[in-house]
Write a structure and sequence with these properties.
Number of strands: 5
Distance between the termini: 53 Å
Structural class: alpha/beta
Mean pLDDT: 87
Helix content: 55-70%
Length: 285
């Protein structure tokens, strides 16, 4: 795992949580629930409090991308300071239109930066490989995630790979039942707990069809069931839900996957795009 920039300690822990062993989860829980205690404690004190060996704490720090306990403490401390600053950047009742716009843009930028910091290079490569080798790609999402699924279809149709997007749960199930192991399905769900989406996942998985999930940075039924889980990071504010801000990260993941696939299928994409432009040109005056 590559060295992480300061300020991404908690995000990395949440992203990798489902992969941790029992003792690692004890350490992870303690850091997430008591970050102030961590930055004021030595590695020996933390080990004693959690009844684990110092070596276990040290290895945990290495696993989440830091050189050691001290490096992890510095990153965590900078993240706490950033968090205090963010509180003062929330939208206030007296803010004018320009100020509100600036704060929304900054929050969106932070969502993208935080998501970028937890991207797993191996998982990203695995997801691209699945899509490159798929005979057909379908995108499923409900509600706001359904809009992201449609955007994915709009982009991937340029690759020359047959694609479809479904936001209706019945259509998802119907279409999923017709797919084969040569196909692939991308499931988009912020919470990762949408019952309808999980039903579709079960049908697809039972048929041996490769699956990719784009979901929030936390352990969820979706992240545990799909073959490849890609995680977004977003924060909820008084005027904007966490799910709303995560949409930007979801769209960016779609963009990144599309460009990666296009690079590997360059000639096919060029031919497909040329045909599309010729067809669309007929609609213009």
């Amino acid at each position: 795992m590559q060295q992480l920039a300061q300020g991404h300690c908690k995000h990395r822990i949440r992203a990798s949580y489902h992969e941790f062993r029992a003792k690692e989860k004890v350490i992870a829980d303690y850091i997430l629930e008591h970050p102030e205690d961590i930055i004021h404690s030595t590695i020996s004190q933390v080990a004693d409090n959690l009844h684990v060996a110092e070596a276990t704490v040290f290895r945990f720090c290495k696993r989440i991308g830091f050189k050691g306990y001290q490096a992890m403490k510095i990153a965590l401390a900078s993240e706490l300071v950033k968090g205090v600053k963010d509180i003062h950047e929330t939208i206030q009742e007296g803010d004018d239109e320009k100020t509100i716009a600036e704060k929304v843009f900054k929050a969106n930028t932070r969502t993208l930066e935080d998501t970028l910091s937890v991207i797993d290079e191996g998982k990203m490569k695995q997801a691209v490989d699945v899509l490159v080798h798929a005979r057909r790609i379908e995108f499923y999402g409900n509600g706001g995630s359904g809009i992201v699924a449609m955007d994915a279809h709009h982009k991937f149709i340029r690759t020359g790979i047959p694609t479809a997007a479904y936001s209706d749960s019945h259509l998802q199930l119907m279409s999923a039942s017709q797919l084969t192991p040569e196909d692939a399905v991308v499931f988009i769900s912020h919470s990762g707990t949408n019952h309808n989406i999980l039903e579709a996942v079960d049908i697809v998985q039972s048929a041996g069809i490769p699956t990719i999930g784009i979901t929030t940075i936390a352990k969820s039924p979706l992240s545990e069931r799909v073959d490849v889980a890609l995680f977004t990071v977003s924060e909820e504010t008084e005027y904007r839900s966490e799910a709303l801000s995560s949409r930007l990260a979801q769209l960016s993941f779609i963009d990144a996957l599309y460009v990666n696939v296009s690079m590997q299928k360059k000639e096919q994409v060029q031919q497909s795009t040329k045909k599309m432009r010729e067809a669309i040109s007929r609609t213009r005056i």
